[in-house]
Amino acid sequence: MRENQSKVDGRRRWLLRVAVALAPLALAIGLVSCATGSKLTLVVPPDIPGAHFVGSETCAMCHENITRDFKTASHSRIMAQGTNAINMGCESCHGPGSLHADSAGDRKTGANFGPGRPHVMSGSQRQTIINPRRSSEHCYGCHLDKRGQFALPYHHPVPEGRMSCGDCHNPHKGPATRGGAAQMASENEVCAKCHTVQRGPFVFEHEATREGCTTCHSPHGSVNAMMLTARDASLCVKCHFQQPTGAGRLAIGGIDHTSFLSRGTCWSAGCHEAVHGSQVSTSLRF
Q: Which helix (H) or strand (E) is 193 found in, with range?
C-alpha cells in the first residue's frame, strides 16, 4: 500500500511540475485565442499624429452623401454599435478625424500636434485624413489574405501602385464589388471596364462567363498565368465532363481528346482559342 501511495504521490508531483512549466504557454495561447479565435479580426485603427477620434457624426456633417448610403454597404455589417462604436465607424479606416474636421476638410496640414508642443512634419505624416484608395496597405489591415494573394507571381498591379482596391470595390455603398444590383452582372462589368475584348457580345458565348469571371480567374493573385484558378486543361475539365471510351482513351463532347489533353492547354495550338466567346465557331475555335 505504501509503495502504491508513493507512486501516486510521485505521479502527482510530476504532473504539477509539468503544469507549472506549461503555464506560460497556456497563457499565451489563451491571449492569442482571445484576439483571433472569433470570426471577427481585431485590428488597431490607423493613426494620424496629433489627431483624436471625433465620431462618425462629425464626418456626416460634410460627407452626408456617403454616410447616408453606408447602411447598404457590405462594410456596414462589421461596424460596432452603441458605445463600442465611439472611436470606430468611418475612422476605423480613415483614421482619427479631428485635424481633418478642424481644418475644414483640408487633406494636409502644416503642423501636427505631437506630445509636448506642435512641430512641423512632412510627407504622409502631414495628412489630416487617410485615403485607403491611395494605398492598399490600409485595406490589408483587415484583409490579410489579400496581401498574400497579391504577393503571388500573377496578380493585378495593385502592389505596383497602378491599381487600387477602390478600382474594383466600393466600401461605402452596396455590394463590395462595384457594379449593378445583380451580383454576377456586377462582377463581370467590373472586369469588362478594363478587359474590353472579353466583354462581348459574342454569337457563341462561353457559358462559364455567365457564372462570373472568378469561375476561372483569381482576381487578387494566382500561381498560374493569367491568374487562372487551375493550370492548363485541369481548369477546363472541372466543367467539361470526360468520358472514358476504353483502351485508356477519353472523350469530351463526343470527340476523342486523349492526345489533346496531354498537350497542356485547351486554348492554344488552334484549338479553343476564343475561350471567352466566338463570332463564328460553336466550339470557340476562332
A: none
Q: What is the pLDDT of residues 208-221, one digit of tens each?
A: 988 889 999 999 99
Cell numbers that stand for 74 in this block: 457590405
Residue with C-alpha cell 460553336? 282
List of E strands, the chain: 111-113, 118-120, 204-205, 243-246, 249-252, 255-256, 277-278
For cell 511540475, the residue is 17
Contacts of 220 (CB under 8 A, 6+ apart): 146, 149, 150, 155, 156
Look up cell 479606416; give the residue.
93
Q: What is the DSSP letter of 105?
A: T
User: What pTM did the predictor assign?
Assistant: 0.71
Q: Write out the DSSP string of 59-77.
A: HHTT-HHHHHHGGGSGGGG
Helix (H) or strand (E) holding 275: none
Dihedral angle sign, alpha carbons of residues 205, 207, 210, 216: negative
